[in-house]
Amino acid sequence: MVSLLEMPQAVSKSPTRDAAQLPAQQNDTAMIEIDRVKFAYGTNTVLHDVTLNVPPKAVTAFIGPSGCGKTTLLRCINRMNDLVDGAAITQGAIRIQGTDINTPGLDVVELRRRVGMVFQKSNPFPKSIYDNIAYGLRIAGVTKRSLIDEAVEKSLRASALWDEVKDRLNVSGYGLSGGQQQRLCIARALAVEPEIILMDEPCSALDPIATAKVEELIHHLKQHYTIVIVTHNMQQAGRVSDNTAFFYLGRLIEFADTRKIFSNPSQKQTEDYITGRFG
Amino acid sequence: MTSVRPHLRRSRIIERIAFWAFRIATYIVLAFATYIFLDIGIKGARTVFTTTAPFVNTTFLFDRPQTLYVFEHEGQKMTLGDTDFRAWKETHGEPAVDPTTVAYSAGGIWPCIVGTALLVVGSMVLALFVGISSAIYLSEYSRNGRFIKLVRIAILNLAGVPSIVFGLFGFGLFVIFFGWNVSLLAGWFTLGLMILPAIITASEESLRAVPQGLREGSLALGATKWQTIRKNVLPYALPGILTSSILGIARVAGETAPIMFTAAYAMRDEMPWQVSRASDFVFQGVMALPYHIYVVSSKIPQNEYTERVQYGAAFVFLALVMLIALTSIVLREKSRSRLSW
Amino acid sequence: MPVLAESPPMVPPRTRSLVSTSGAEQAIKAFFGGNALVALLVLALITVFLFREGFGFFGQNLNNLRLYRSAGLEYVDFIRVEAEKHSELTRALNDLRLRQFQKMQIEGVAPEQANASLATFDEFATAFSDTSEPLNGLVSDLSEQASALKEQLFAQAEAGATAGAPPVERDAALAVLRAGTQQYDQAVSGVSTGVDQLLSTAPPLPEAKLQQTFDKWKQRARDYVAQLPAAGEKLRAWSPDTPVPWYRAISAFLFGHDWITASFWQDWYGIRPLLVGSIMVSLVALFFAVPLGVASAVYVSEIASRHEKRIIKPYIEFISAIPSVVLGFFGIAVVGTAVRAISELPMFSWVSFFPISERLNVFTAGLLLALMAVPTIFTLAEDALRNVPRGFKEASYALGANRLQTIARVLVPASLSGIVSAILLGLGRVIGETMVVLLCAGNRIDIPDFTQGLGAFFQPVHTMTGIIAQEMGEVVRGSIHYRALFMVGLVLFTITLLINYFAQKLVARYRMSIG
Ligand SMILES: Nc1ncnc2c1ncn2[C@@H]1O[C@H](COP(=O)(O)OP(=O)(O)OP(=O)(O)O)[C@@H](O)[C@H]1O
Ligand SMILES: [Mg+2]
């Protein structure tokens, strides 16, 4: 059995293009730079001065009590918040490989193709399992059936769903259980081979076995992808992530190596939250 | 427990009586409507169907309206349509007593059927094209600002404006101001505009019923907005749009007031395709079933000679409109059970 | 498991740079936006156009009213009013006689005998009718003069722009007209002496109750005579040059009780008879549709079995698709006749205004409109009832309430604003409906006689929608009549818009209150 470790570099990165496209401010250590970001829904500011560098090829976890702005920040990274009227970054910038994602004229579609997302609430399309996964490829212009077949299988295997659904790829994605749906959504995101994957509580609807599968998957994926995961599950954050960011009331309280956060947090609030004293 | 307390029993009786009252009220409505269907169905069927093959009265369905001549000849009562009467005169000469004439009561309603079909098709094409496009814009592209909210309220309210007001407007603008006269074109625009707010509102509602998650899921995969709409929003909104459109067809076909003075003639001898120039096609008025029913029920008396055309036309029209409405209701029930988020 | 490592990258190489905007996307957005704009513009145009065509009415109506005064038509109408009051008294007499005659018939008196016994009364009636001769004569003389003057003034105004029109000798003509004041005084004295004389010799009526009415009538006649000189004062005070204030054009439209068009004398565009007609028809429709619609909504949402529900709901929705012209035809062919036949049944003989004389009347039209309103009310009210959160209902059951109590105390109050808005939308539909009222309301432009009480609802009326449908085809573009119809349309537009607006507001509030 060949593990995902041997997956090739999924994203073709020609050095020339990178050089041409991503300007000087490139930060070698950060895939995503979140730079003093302030974010507001209308007049309601929900993120205050968040600064944070997400390293490449690693898992970064966002933790914090409900309503502290984790989802909001995550959705800023692939500009999903564009869909919310009146929501905007009011200050600061988010850069991916050095490019400010809010540069006027930037192609959001291309951005989102590079930054995949798995939503808090699983949202498979009311199409067959096969079509759900093929969707991203088809819209990217892949028409060759064999390529799509291959990608579907690969992504389903990667998300540990293949064995459960391989005989019914043509049934609706709605026919799956909640956990399976969530893994389908992960497979769907993997199929287009993004560079970054944002996961918003991907396991909130899953049973422990499925959760374990997803965690294992994340563990493998980080070889090739930069992963940001929001979770309410401390153990999970401890298990899967390399770095952890703790948010409280829209502020980044602490961001450090996961082991450090869990063993020896520098902030009192962090400690209280992790040990379950509030939140 | 041995006995029900008396006040409980009383309230049970009251409940029973009240439920019967509700039931009777409901069935009164159903009975009244059923009576209408039966009355028109039975009396109209006498005109429309025949006992011999092909079992439908082809004269009535596929002929034009004619004046009926009633007279006595050699002790026999004759009732002849215009054409027949002329032929009869060729052989028999003028009847001894001047015949009584009853307008519209002979022949059929073919031009009305054709005219109504033309009006419906044209106005629906117009309304659906503009209406669905507008709905897509409003629901998918526009920012939810105060202006758009205002637009939405305005459209919603315009949907309740009486059809006669649209007729008035169409008459003033298209017929007179633009000088299109009574014409198909004026009718298309008037009917199309009348139904437009309803189409926009219903289509937008269907579009909004598609969960936001589907849009986000698609966009997050790097789909463009249009790809998202085309592949992941429209297909799921389509059943809803379709049912409301079909209901719109039923309404457009059923309205009389807006076409009375924009598109409909009480009587016209040529069929719509009998125009000298192709460009005249849209500038001709047509006969229309609902207007014909209005004319034959208000401009000629109710008697044995007129019942044929009155009930016949009402039957055909009712059957057509109800068929469309039924399609829409059945479609909706189907799609309701198929798609639920 | 296949070797994933062997598969080549699936997503095609990204050729597009991160910094670019798609032209096609922009074009698509512009296309939809353009369509939305067109829709919006056209719908706005309707409103603007209605207003544009409608508001011209007021200017024209003001001219119409000014001409009415300056040509002396108003003056003549002062006298005409008195003459008409007189003939009304005569009509009342005839009516009295008819009732007396019927009474005698019921009592079994032979017709000849009855006529004979009423001979003196007939004489009296004829004599009374004759006393109006001088007044009537005066009116018809003056009418001719005033009409002629109006014609001339009108022609002059038309030709005014081109000039060179022969000047109208208005003052001379008016002087002739105003000599009518003197004649009126003479006529009045003639009438009063005549009537006084007659009243003192009035014959009695055999029926005591009718005699009472007759006595009342005599009092009316005396009052009439007494107020005649007042009109003379009005005539003296009248001046053709008193300016007609601008707001008269509006108030005459909104409150005028005559809608008279294409008349040789004077056109009046008062919306009141039409408004009253529309309202009465709607009242009848709601009278039936509200209980039936709400009751069936309650029945279907709370009481009916699943099986019944599956049939009744689509069926009622199906009813809403019946074309109104078919309903109208059914009204003419069946309902009108049936209503009249029922009113002729002996079991209803106790109803004072039965049997009815017109089969097409407010009631007939209202009954059919009720059938149109029921589906609207039903659908929306059922919706409102169904959307009451389950918890409310369950809480009520848990307290030991039975189903009826739950419906009456919990469900209906909780969905009340939804139900009210359903009723409002039903009203909107009814008031804007054209074909049924055009075919079945009788089309008599007159405010019904409310002295008959509920009988007024069995009289023919005309409605706002009906008048547009009936008269629009025949008007000249830009004429005052054309614009008056637009004004009626505008009133209709405003009313329905208001109704809709409030209905939606209510629904919004309802949605908020139940979360
Ligand atoms: N679409 C929106 N419009 C307005 N305010 C919003 C919107 N979405 C979220 N918020 C507000 O922003 C704040 C942060 O919300 P966010 O969803 O980011 O929290 P979260 O950390 O993801 O919480 P959870 O753990 O419950 O998912 C909350 O106070 C929320 O009320
Ligand atoms: Mg969240």
From TrEMBL, chain B:
The chain crosses the membrane at residues 20-38, 108-138, 150-178, 184-202, 233-253, 311-331. The keyword S-adenosyl-L-methionine does not apply. InterPro entries: MetI-like, MetI-like_sf, Phosphate_PstA. SUPFAM superfamilies: MetI-like. Keywords: Cell membrane, Membrane, Transmembrane, Transmembrane helix, Transport. One of its GO terms (biological process) is phosphate ion transmembrane transport. GO terms for molecular function: phosphate transmembrane transporter activity. It is found in: Cell membrane. PANTHER family: PHOSPHATE TRANSPORT SYSTEM PERMEASE PROTEIN PSTA-RELATED. This is Phosphate transport system permease protein PstA. The lineage of its organism: Bacteria, Pseudomonadati, Verrucomicrobiota, Spartobacteria, Chthoniobacterales.
TrEMBL record, chain C:
The chain crosses the membrane at residues 30-51, 277-300, 321-342, 362-385, 406-427, 480-503. It is found in: Cell membrane. One of its GO terms (cellular component) is plasma membrane. It comes from the Bacteria. It is a multi-pass membrane protein. The keyword Metal-binding does not apply. Residues 275-503 form the ABC transmembrane type-1 domain. Pfam families: BPD_transp_1. SUPFAM superfamilies: MetI-like. One of its GO terms (biological process) is phosphate ion transport. InterPro entries: MetI-like, MetI-like_sf, Phosphate_PstC. Keywords: Cell membrane, Membrane, Phosphate transport, Transmembrane, Transmembrane helix, Transport. GO terms for molecular function: phosphate transmembrane transporter activity. Its main location: membrane. The keyword Transport applies. PANTHER family: PHOSPHATE TRANSPORT SYSTEM PERMEASE, PHOSPHATE TRANSPORT SYSTEM PERMEASE PROTEIN. Part of the binding-protein-dependent transport system for phosphate; probably responsible for the translocation of the substrate across the membrane. Belongs to the binding-protein-dependent transport system permease family. CysTW subfamily. This is Phosphate transport system permease protein. It comes from uncultured Chthoniobacterales bacterium. The lineage of its organism: Bacteria, Pseudomonadati, Verrucomicrobiota, Spartobacteria, Chthoniobacterales.
